[in-house]
Amino acid sequence: MESRPPLPGADTSMRIAGPAIIDEVPPMTLRAEIAALPPSQRLVDSGAFHVYCARADQIRSVLREIGRLRELTFRAVGEGTGRCADIDAFDAYYLHLFVWDTRQDAIAGAYRLGLVDEIQARHGQRGLYTRSLFRYGPALLDMLNPAIELGRSFVRVEYQRSFTPLMLLWCGIGRFIVRSPRYTVLFGPVTISGRYARESRRLMVDYLSRHRADAHLVSLVSPRRPFRDGAATSALGVNDPTPGKIDELSQRIAQIEPDGKGVPVLLRHYLRLGGRLLGFSVDVQFGNALDGLIMVDVRQIEPAVLERYMGTAGSAAFRGYHAAHAAGSTM
Asked: Which of 60, 159, 238, 241 makes a 20 to 30 Å CA pair with 120?
């Protein structure tokens, strides 16, 4: 294995409980595998960072490293699978979007993408990861499709001081959709760590259920393991109303949490994109994390925001594609 200095911001003293994580894949192995990918699969370039999207059979070593980093990253916040790497059966046929840091020869973050129409055709509804967390049927998928299921997102601990890796992952998602504009809906689980106090999680569920739920689609989804908040009372007063704005909610939670953390960054990001919640389920196989099933209609994202992730030309092409289809459907 190549020796190299720690990545900027790395905490070399960090110790994470649980089974031993698999060894790091040598950087030279990752470099060679990534270099063999067709140029068309490099979706974004930004300085030293490149964003790729690939199938599992193209990136066996890269996927092994992604699985290692997922487990490390998730364990650091009290989640994780408890296995030596976070790799499951879904990885074999989902797509993998990842940010490669060419200066450090390191994967900075990744997302897993499931093309729902293709997965349904080959594996049925049970081929979707979200079906392991929620019960839903054809009625929901008929309303969402063509859709992309997103999940297993992470930004490596050493890169979390910057918003850049998450931004680049979303630029990669945006560029992927520009190339496949039939996909108009993104949905998947957004995680609220089990390390949040029960009261904080209750407040988030209350806020999202009252202000950010899709009143129609929520009736088509049920959790496999419902969130039970019991007789929780507010740490700031039993009769305190649930905040009506996300910033107020985040401030309220920061007052409850010993480390001062607010609403999870990724949840806030989905909400800025117009995300709507369809349900909540506890994942006992993932550190008792609370998963919210969230849905984003890409066509409803504000044009300026869409342009940020798709680029000017890509955003115009996507909007033009759907404007033409809408006009054709009315003829």
From this structure: 60
